[in-house]
Amino acid sequence: MRSMLSLLSPALETYVLEHTTRESPLLERLRAETQAKLAYPQMQVGPIEGQFLRCLVAMSRARRILEIGTYSGYSALCMASALPDDGQLITCDIDPVATAMARRYFDESGYGHKIEIRYAPAMDTLTQLRRIGHSFDLVFIDADKEAYADYWEQIVPLLPSGGLVVADNTLWNGRVLAPSHPSDHGIVRFNARVANDQRIEHVLLAIRDGIMLARKH
Fold first, then answer.
1. CA-to-CA distance for 123 and 179, rounded, in angstroms?
2. Is the dihedral of CA 114, 96, 140, 18 positive or negative?
3. Tell me: the pLDDT tens digits for 168-183?
4. Cα–Cα 20 to 30 A to 207, which of 47, 48, 136, 166?
5. What Rg do the C-alpha atoms of the chain give, in angstroms?
6. Domains and CATH numbers, the chain
7. Is the pLDDT of residue 7 over 80?
8. Residues 49, 126, 62, CA angle at the centre, nearest 5°?
């Protein structure tokens, strides 16, 4: 989810964008349609973070990805594009309008066969995945902030040694320094949970609105 906050000046942000691999025409169209037709288009991952996710998938050679929060599918498309042809990405959401847009773009992309949308509350999907013994090389969290810490406890057991977790919005517009709303406290609670978890090593990155990157020992 992209915050309204930019940690960089507009000029420096433009410079960063100009020196990042350019998004594909398909992703550019998806971003434009999201802006034009969906409520809360700021929830969409932007091209810089999208390329960061794609690079992580490629460098880690991930084959199985779980995404908590599909929205219109930009981040899922970025990650799926770096998966091998027999790779799998499961993405979870409960918004029928946004996921319908995502599905159209998945089908058009040429790698939609790698992506499965689970239209259900994420905790229900996580419970089911744990029950059947699923594991994932990389998990991306970008959904309701109050539940981040709860998701974390369900996700870590799904990771093999070396598995990655990427959580978006972990600076939360700077409100982590003076939390007042439930979502603020949710992010603070999540960051503290990660920082005190001996099962992983982690770094909090000041990319866009903050990205927590964790690796399981």
1. 25
2. positive
3. 999 999 999 999 999 9
4. 136
5. 16
6. 10-216 (3.40.50.150)
7. no
8. 45
Asked if 8 contacts 16 with a C-beta cutoff of 8 angstroms, the reply is yes
214: phi then psi, degrees, rounded to nearest 5: -130, 145
Residue 200 has pLDDT above 80, yes or no: yes
pLDDT in tens, 96-109: 999 999 999 999 99
Place of tokens 């089908």: 107
β pairing state of 164-168 and 138-141: parallel
Distance (Å, whole) CA 24 – CA 74: 11
What's the chain look like in SS3? CCCCCCCCCHHHHHHHHHCCCCCCHHHHHHHHHHHHHCCCHHHCCCHHHHHHHHHHHHHHCCCEEEEECCCCCHHHHHHHCCCCCCCEEEEEECCHHHHHHHHHHHHHHCCHHHEEEEECCHHHHHHHHHHCCCCCCEEEECCCHHHHHHHHHHHHHHCCCCCEEEEECCCHHHHHHCCCCHHHHHHHHHHHHHHCCCCEEEEEECCCCCEEEEEEC
Closest among 62, 143, 134 to 99, alpha carbons compared: 143
Token duo for residue 12: 């420096």
CA 209 to chain centre: 12
Number of residues written out for the chain? 217
